[in-house]
Amino acid sequence: MEENKYKRTLITTALPYANGPVHIGHLAGVYVPADIYARYLRLRGREVVMVGGSDEHGVPITIRARKEGITPQDVVDRYHKIIKDSFEEFGVSFDVYSRTTSATHAETASEFFRHIYDKGGFVEKPSMQFYDEGAGRFVTDRNVTGECPVCHAQGAYGDQCEKCGSSLSATDLINPRCAETGNVPVMRETFHWYLPLDRWQPELEKWILEDHKEWRTNVYGQCKSWLDLGLQPRAVTRDLDWGIPVPVEGADGKVLYVWFDAPIGYISNTKELLPDSWEKWWKDPETRIINFIGKDNIVFHCIIFPAMLMAYGDGYQLPDNVPANEFLNLEGDKISTSRNWAVWLHEYLRDFPGKQDVLRYVLTANAPESKDNDFTWADFQARNNNELVAVLGNFVNRAVVLTHKYFGGTVPAPGELQPVDTQMLADVRAAVAALTDALDTFRFREALKQAMEIARIGNRYLQETEPWKVAKTDMDRTATILYMALQLCANLAVACEPFMPFMSARLVKMLGLGKPSWEMLGSDTLVAAGSAVAQPELLFEKIEDEAIAAQLKRLADTKKANEAAAWKPAPVQPDVDFDTFCLSDLRAGTVLECERVPKADKLLRFRIDDGTPEGRTIVSGIAKSYPDPSELVGRQVVYIANLPARKLRGIESQGMILSAEDKDGSLVLASVSRPVAPGAQIK
């Protein structure tokens, strides 16, 4: 196995941004996979350290602080505690969880920059940047909004349009404004230091494209696309008053850019944990470094941070693997902190106390390892009730209950094994081998499936051997069956520990197993004959429909609130003079007929009584808002009478019916407040 080439493993996890609490997307994307791997290595007796911490610098924190009338330090202190407490509650077993506002980090990051600076590793150059004159500060691309030049959506950010997904620069926006103040920004010259990534492109190409073809396809592919385009220098400083000051004379008002500052946190956190031996975890070739991140951080961890380490030199080792996950969606929609579209960990703990393992299980079973995946509350309930309760919990409960019923809670001594017993053991050992291989190659969904396979093997074994029937005639055989079932329970306690540590600890205690280790797996002597088994307790309990309905209602309420908050009327069109407006002949007419236009999803054909003997036909694109056209018959509508006729799907349309677009995108027919004569002119 790959990790056997190394004496030790350093596991790092992406630093969550301390601008709000953490949600299930964070847990699924980074922290549960990292914890699974760390726990697995510890069970194997490997030397391993897992480091993490909060990312506490950057513009969004200063904006939140100004909105709340507090200091940026107040903001990060609040959320660092919430985040750290949530990870502890969910059993994420960091050896150290620190923060980028620590003194150790400030010293480490400053020295890191200065060392590269002194070697001539940066390029200093001027640039033009948006400046908010009213607020007296530079603004980042993310904090400029305007109309997207690609899809023309309003509210696009200066770095990306969330509606069409286009990558942008703030200067691309139409009618840009500062997001925080609403001021129109101006361009102003500034200067920054840049890391010349292009200087390190040959080394990065060899390291990634030649030496790490085993990386996940999404990671390798994203890196290759960046390298194929050619790397460009990237700014490592910002004009800001919150962050680590640039340790160079003449850099007043400038701080280290948060993306440069944050990954150095892995090093400073290791220093904080191991002040006398941290270098062996970063500079010894016999240390394996694994970065657990989400896909939005692939470039930072596979190109930019490695380039920083190359630029620094002095023996820093590059990561051996970066098993980045894709994104987890929620009920079919992208998780968004700004829209409150998330399942927050601290709220989950309140609503589902004691069910940390259930969420860990579901998130692992649905882990977005190769593509984006979806979390739904219906699936959460089904996996708990149909898998954890009905498969794993059911098997353990039956084995322990029967042991108490027939042997007073004492592990019976086995007799001679029969073929069904040896086949069960062979099946367990095959599952253990597949489980181990999956964990070694960071395939955690498959690994969990193999761990659960042990429970399925146990249920099949009890169904085949039927100890409750055998007990009527052969207690010796019953003893063997239950002895083997208890051994399988002990195997489950070990195999499930990386995934469901709380359940595993309870099962270990119930069986009196002692300290588990990976080498115990596949054994039929884990629980000694004659030892006591504690009273049975349910490892999992059913989740009722009411609990799920409450979560779905909360999300529905959130969606409604978002729609109400996000809606803005369309911009007013350019002015027209009064005489031009008067040329439009607006009239009221009564709908005589209304039907769908064949083979046209959006079109309805109206027959309008306009006060003339012949009436008029108008085709309107409002079919999706009125699925039953017959309900419009008899309604009075407003139409433009003097538009030139034109053919739509072979039908001559003699005017245009007016409608209003509501905030949900639906169209509502314009009308008059009381009935008027057909053809009445609107003035």
3D structure, described in words:
By secondary structure, this protein is α+β, with helices and mostly antiparallel strands. It contains 20 helices and 26 strands. β21 (646-648) and β22 (651-653) form a beta hairpin. α4 (103-118) crosses α8 (264-273) and α15 packs antiparallel against α17 (475-495). The protein starts with 7 loop residues before the first strand and ends with a strand.
Summarize the structure.
The chain is α+β, with helices and mostly antiparallel strands and 683 residues long. The chain has four domains: 2-116 and 257-329, Rossmann fold (3-Layer(aba) Sandwich); 120-229, Beta Complex (Methionyl-trna Synthetase, domain 2), CATH 2.170.220; 376-520, Isoleucyl-tRNA Synthetase, Domain 1, CATH 1.10.730; 578-681, OB fold (Dihydrolipoamide Acetyltransferase, E2P), CATH 2.40.50.140.
Tags for this model:
683 residues; alpha+beta; flat; 26 strands; Rossmann fold; four-stranded parallel beta sheet; Methionyl-trna Synthetase, domain 2
What does the main sheet amount to?
6 strands, antiparallel
Helix-strand makeup class: alpha+beta
CATH superfamily of the largest domain: HUPs
| Ends distance | 83 Å
Summed over residues and divided by their number, the pLDDT gives a mean of: 94
| Contiguous runs where pLDDT drops below 50 for at least 5 residues | none
**CATH class category of the largest domain:** Alpha Beta
Number of helices: 20
Q: What amount of the residues lies in strands? A: 15-25%
Can you tell me the number of structural domains? 4
How many extended strands?
26
Report the C-alpha radius of gyration, rounded. Answer: 32 Å
Per the principal axes of the C-alpha atoms, what is the gross shape?
flat
CATH topology of the largest domain: Rossmann fold
- As a percent range, the share of helical residues equals 40-55%
Name the CATH architecture of the largest domain. Answer: 3-Layer(aba) Sandwich
